[in-house]
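User: I've been trying to design a sequence by hand for this structure and keep getting stuck. Would you show me what you'd pick, starting by listing the structure so we're on the same page?

Assistant: Good idea, let's start from the same input. This is the structure you sent:
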């Protein structure tokens, strides 16, 4: 731990688990030290999941915002509330009821510099996903990174390569992989129980819900005290501060996200790929796109959309806000539909199916956070590894590019390039502000 950080925070020094032989058998007295980067929306929920893990010690939190409203349902979040929650949580186990062992940082690089931190949870806006993940991998940290994996296909490729090259463990926050219903549906399909698969319907939400209660605050305002807005913009283009731009509703602005297409692109399309056996590949064409776009002062993502992703095995994925929510696999002899909390099939007897010892049995995980910790210890691949996450969100990006260009596209999943379309290939990445880059 850096001496200046130790003096500044008075946080206890934790010996990293890797230095204590955590790569092999785990002693019950040793904990994996975790730093949380991004404590606003999903980051706070993920942090609480990590705090429930007895094998984990959260030793640092980081956020560009000290504390403010504007998060889910207009709620208050930031690094100060996060640190207070961590210290309250650990303080309950102390006779004094007081714990002061969690440092708070504004700059994520201060977290990555700490040699006593084994793993990081990264839950930041989409346009900030790639840089800290790549730097964390190079710094030797294992990573739990939120979905959607990346803002662009090029960033996703760079992230996956960095994790692989640095031999890091990565779990994407696409938690449906740890839900027994989704796994069951995919095993039914993978083992041919619905006959030959021909169509997959991915039903996603539409619209631009006002998650942060800031829809009426899209005009420029002074930057609030305690919020490092210039760093929040980071690699994105310069733009004046407005509450409707940040915290939750950033996802409705194409400079920072891709709307519902990408916000849910790490969920249902990921399950579609799992059931199709396309976790390491992708479509060969995007066609028949239709979309309606938001026309507010800041918000400009698709509010209603549909496109078809065609695969080399003649399977068609319909990616749409106009079909039943969830994932529907349609085969020559039946179908299965799955969503959070529900699964249906025809014939109904499919729901009694369990794969035999010589059939395909998909990765079993009952707890997404625990699976990540298991893999940090064992060094095995997680249930939602980064290359799978990259391939899943690629479909969303391909759809957005096709919809924005207003034409069908052909795609090579091996080279990850469009065929005979340089304009589309230019949209595989985005310029980054000079001070920031991968």
């Amino acid at each position: 731990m850096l001496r200046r950080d130790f003096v500044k925070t008075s946080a206890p020094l934790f010996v990293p688990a890797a230095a204590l032989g955590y790569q092999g058998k785990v002693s019950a007295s040793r904990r994996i030290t975790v730093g949380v980067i991004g404590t606003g929306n999903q980051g706070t929920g993920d942090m609480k999941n990590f705090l429930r893990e007895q094998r984990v010690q959260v030793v640092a939190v980081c956020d560009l915002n000290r504390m403010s409203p504007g998060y889910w349902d207009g709620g208050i979040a930031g690094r100060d509330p996060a640190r207070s929650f961590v210290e309250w949580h650990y303080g309950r186990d102390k006779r004094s009821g007081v714990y002061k062992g969690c440092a708070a940082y504004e700059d994520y690089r201060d977290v990555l510099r700490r040699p006593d931190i084994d793993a990081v949870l990264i839950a930041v806006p989409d346009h900030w996903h790639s840089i800290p993940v790549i730097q964390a991998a190079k710094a030797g940290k294992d990573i739990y990174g939120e979905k959607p994996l990346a803002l662009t296909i090029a960033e996703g490729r760079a992230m996956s390569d960095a994790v692989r090259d640095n031999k890091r463990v990565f779990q994407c926050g696409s938690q449906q992989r740890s839900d027994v219903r989704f796994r069951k549906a995919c095993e039914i399909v993978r083992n041919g129980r619905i006959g030959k698969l021909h169509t997959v319907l991915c039903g996603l939400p539409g619209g631009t819900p006002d998650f942060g209660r800031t829809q009426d605050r899209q005009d420029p305002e002074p930057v609030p005290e305690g919020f490092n807005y210039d760093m929040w913009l980071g690699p994105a283009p310069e733009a004046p501060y407005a509450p409707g731009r940040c915290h939750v509703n950033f996802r409705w602005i194409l400079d920072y996200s891709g709307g519902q297409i990408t916000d849910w692109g790490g969920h249902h399309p990921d399950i579609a790929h799992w059931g199709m056996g396309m976790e390491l590949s992708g479509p060969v064409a995007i066609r028949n796109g239709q979309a309606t776009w938001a026309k507010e002062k800041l918000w400009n993502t698709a509010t209603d959309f549909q496109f078809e992703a065609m695969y080399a095995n003649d399977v068609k994925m319909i990616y749409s806000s106009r079909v039943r929510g969830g994932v529907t696999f349609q085969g020559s002899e039946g179908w299965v539909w799955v969503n959070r909390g529900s699964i249906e099939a025809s014939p109904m007897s499919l729901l009694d199916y369990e794969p035999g010892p010589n059939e395909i049995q998909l990765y079993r995980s009952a707890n997404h956070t625990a699976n990540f910790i298991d893999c940090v210890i064992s060094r095995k691949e997680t249930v939602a590894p980064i290359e799978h996450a990259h391939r899943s969100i690629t479909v969303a990006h391909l759809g957005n590019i096709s919809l924005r260009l207003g034409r069908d596209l052909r795609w090579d999943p091996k080279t990850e390039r469009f065929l005979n379309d340089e304009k589309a290939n230019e949209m595989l990445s985005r310029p980054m502000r000079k001070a920031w880059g991968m």
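That's my pick for every position. To get oriented when you compare it with your attempt: The two ends are 25 Å apart (CA to CA). DSSP finds 13 helices and 15 strands in the chain.
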